[in-house]
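Lab notebook, page 48
Experiment: co-folding of the full assembly
Goal: obtain a model of how the components sit together before planning crosslinking
Operator: M.T.
Materials (sequences as entered):
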Amino acid sequence: MERLDLEIQAGEAVAILGASGSGKSTLLGLLAGLDSATSGEVWLCGQRVDDLDEDGRAALRSGRVGFVFQNFQLLPTLTARENVLLPLELTGTRDAARRADEALDRVGLTPRARHYPRQLSGGEQQRVAIARAYAPRPEVLFADEPTGNLDQVTGEHIIDLLLDLRSDAGAALVLVTHDPRLAERCDRRLHMTAGHLEQGS
Amino acid sequence: MKTWRITLRLLGQDWRSGELYLLASALILTVAAITAVGFFTDRVESAMARQGGELIAADLALESATPLPADYREQADRLGLTTAGIVEFRSVVVGEGGPQLVQVKAVDTAYPLRGRLSVRDAFDAPDREVETGPPPGEVWVESRLLPLLGAALGDEVGLGESRLRMGAILSNEPDRGGALFALAPRVMLSQSDLAATGLITEASRAEHRLLVAGEAAAVERFKRAIEAGLPVNIDLIDGSTARPEFESAVDRASRFLHLATLVTLLVAGAAIVLASRRFVERQTDAVAVMRCLGAPNHLLMRVFMMRLVLFGLIASLVGCVLGWLGQLGLMSLLSEWFATDLPTPSLAPVVVGVATGLVALLGFALPPLFQLAQVSPLRALRRDLGAPRGSAILTVVGAASALALLIIWQADDFQLAWKLMAGVLGAVASLVITVLVLVRLAGGLAGRARGVWRLGLAALARRPSAAVLQISGLGLGILALLLLAVVRVDLLAAWQETLPEGAPNHFLINIQPQDVEPLGRFLREGGLGESAIYPMIRGRLVRINDREIVPSDYENPRAEQLASREFNLSQGADLQSDNRIVAGAWWSGADAAPEFSVEEGIAETLGIALGDEIAFLVSGREVSAPVTSLREVQWDSFNVNFFVISSPALLGSEPATYITSFYLPEERETLIPELVKRFPSVTLLDVDALLTQVRQVVDRGVLAVEYVFLFTLAAGILVMYAGIQASLEERRLEHGILRTLGTGRRALLTSLAVEFTAAGILAGALATIFAELTGWLLAEQLFGLTFSFNPMLWLIGVFGSGALIGIAGTLATYPLLIRPPLHTLRQAG
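Observation: model returned without errors.
Model output:
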């Protein structure tokens, strides 16, 4: 990364675009506090991230940051509902069960709540992942190529869902993608080339 | 609360998804084996001790040359034990044919407390079991006394001032063993008649014995209570250690059993290591995601730890139940062998089982678990980060300390434990090193090979640590199977051969020199074969080098006893076939210089070393010579054996009586009365009952060990399954890629076959070497048996294992790898 200066407001939807190997996933990892930078500062939810240790960053992420991955990353041994429950239980949310059911309902998967990930289609799995990300009502949601493994129509639905939920919750959305059509639908687009960030239109 | 909920949820899901089946099987098997053997040995050892007790007709006996103080009896009564009194002494009975020296035994109505007393009502009548000794007014006599007295059953004999009727022939007396070499025939009478004979006064020489029996715990309490304050003139005889022949057989049996358990533990431990590695590897993604979701490290570790402990507890309890059932099965299999009901087992094995399960699981599975703490949350974004490598050192240290703990605990014998531990660690270390070298070699070969061969060999060499674990696991499995298939059979056969069918069941002692020739002829003509007749010279040890022997100088009571009594010495030119020289050399021929050969056990007890000059007082004259060899003697072979033997030059001219032993088949028992008549001065000892008891112990022991080895067999199969499964995950992706690149099914199949066969051959060769070594070590070092190397082992071990693992591995993994490549790639993503 070189001379990188970026600020994302609450409620804003930002797309980070770039070719493979341009460093967009690295940037996402830094922003989300999954990785630490060798120099510079990262602030997340009003807190400086880069001088926290891993457990401190985990505590910060817990409940306030949501993730959606390209490979869905659902735990294969848990049902859809249990996957959504997991972050709520990790943060010790009181009405975890109710909120998990609401989140599943919001993504339209109540009938599939007791299914295991391998019994769900790719789109359904990603919807479970989105429910899981939104259930704890995070302040920021990071999405890494959320439609990368999906066909175009399903991908559109997933983006609709992500943006709708963002508006409902008032959370910021940081989306990494190489699909310009998805990026079009965000408030702001950033282009990443070989570690440089260009503010887009 | 939160931790618990997550723990339980994950555990339940693990179970439903089948993630834990392999780990659970390995753990359950380990615990089942240990508890089954625990319950079983608990019962059998006490049964065996009790059977040993039959040889002294009690669980415990106190013996003294003077009447025993009454408070021992009272103390035993208070503990709820039953007691019986015996007085034994030499005397003379007078019949029609004149006086005859006899060994008199006066018993009270409680005798015998253990074992069976049987009599015959006529010379040729069948044995009849009786509950108590002779009624007042009656004596029971050994059959050989009748011809000596020229009397018949029903006649009266004079004993001291009394006249008593000979009511029955005494055919079996459980504690006869103690007086095995008593020269005079037995006469048994009721203790109520004893006073009237006037034979026993304060000053008379007699042996007074108090027999004690009852609940094992109470007996133990009694023993502990009196042991410390026991005066030197009172001997304490423990039923379980009463006879060396018996003790040695029981000892071997329990060593075999514990060994079988330890082998199971070792093999199942390997399965646990392999299975838990696999389990942990499959948890890596989940951990990365949970870390992304903000789970702190300590929470995750706590959750995993609790999951492990909870899982370990459940699996251990299931194992205990299985162990209990296994023990019941074994008992019903063996029940008819035991004359008495077996004592119910204690619950201690459950505690041991659960603790073993937890220690094994934590020792073997915790190190791979620690690697989960190192999983970066970034892995959820970037799959290419891979799983963190488990620390090999941590794994080895964890497994070794768990093993050490369990072995020391299980072996219940520090020396055995250390030997085993050193053996196991040495074996594992050399196994790992050899595999590492061989894997490198396979890597080198892969560079030169082509196509599928390169793929197959490279698969082994690419991840050496995984390959080492896999091959070591497979090797252990094969080792267990080889030990079971070959070494076990050889070992157990060698054990049974120490007591072959036809082992001597009769001893003839007190043979006069002029009777040696005719007696040998008599035995030959009677169809009893050629028996060696050994000279026996009585002598007391008086000096070792310049040191005078003073019995009370010895602290060890057994040494003191040995030093104060007369030895049965012998002399001869040739070494007995069942003796083995362990130090020094046997003399050559009849004209060797004056030398002594001493049995190693007694040499150690008395402090005699090779090269010492020892002196015996023989018929009033001191004879001395250097000790030029130490011998190992198989006391449980029932052959005639001597502690000390001299070369003919030393004791050849001393007056001697002779001794021999022979096997008398049941159908030839009619020879006995004739023998007694023709050689009236010869004393006949029938040890058939004792021999049968020892043989039963051996046979039971063999059966029990075979049964326990079934667990080892299961563990062996399990570890091989785990070994094959171990590499599956890593290969799935690779094969997806290969298939995408257009590699055909046939080529994939061949590369799998090459890899597994190569692994099988490597593992097999190593296992064979270790199996031979183990067999040799066990036989020679632990059990004192002779072991012969078995060439078939190599054939089975190397080629059998190559074929078995090659076929099983290929069959097990192939179907999983030929799914459509896209499916595989997606899943591995």
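Interpretation: Chain A touches chain B at residues 25, 28-29, 32, 34-35, 54-55, 58-65, 67, 69, 71, 73, 75-78, 82, 86-87, 89-92, 116, 132, 144, 149 (CB under 8 Å).
Next step: discuss with group before ordering constructs.
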